[in-house]
Amino acid sequence: QLDLVESGGGLVQSGESLRLSCAASGLPLDYRAVGWFRQAPGKERERISCIAGRDDTTLYADAVKGRFTISRDNAKSMVYLQMHHLKSEDKGVYFCVVDWDRFLCNAKAEAPQARDINYWGQGTQVTVSS
Asked: What is the Cα–Cα distance from 86 to 47, expressed in whole angstroms?
């Protein structure tokens, strides 16, 4: 069983930055893809970023490209999401996720649905005020 615990969410002003962290335990992250989903108010969860386990390829949703950076530290079983230039539309609950590359982080496939992903954290709230 893989447990994921996010931290780092909070309330910030538009244009500010936040860094989310995700601590994994129970199974090693090696060779697994890690990523972040976001659920905005009234919307479905969507993948916003991931790192493939096999070759560290990173993918980003268009809405966050150039502003967010995902990273991982397998030795520490940690996943991070650095968010800069936050906008009001970035508000939502951010979930750390883990799965195999072909389900979570496949550059040749469409972004996965939330139901396709096996491991989830409990989520951390990010609120951006304008």
From this structure: 17
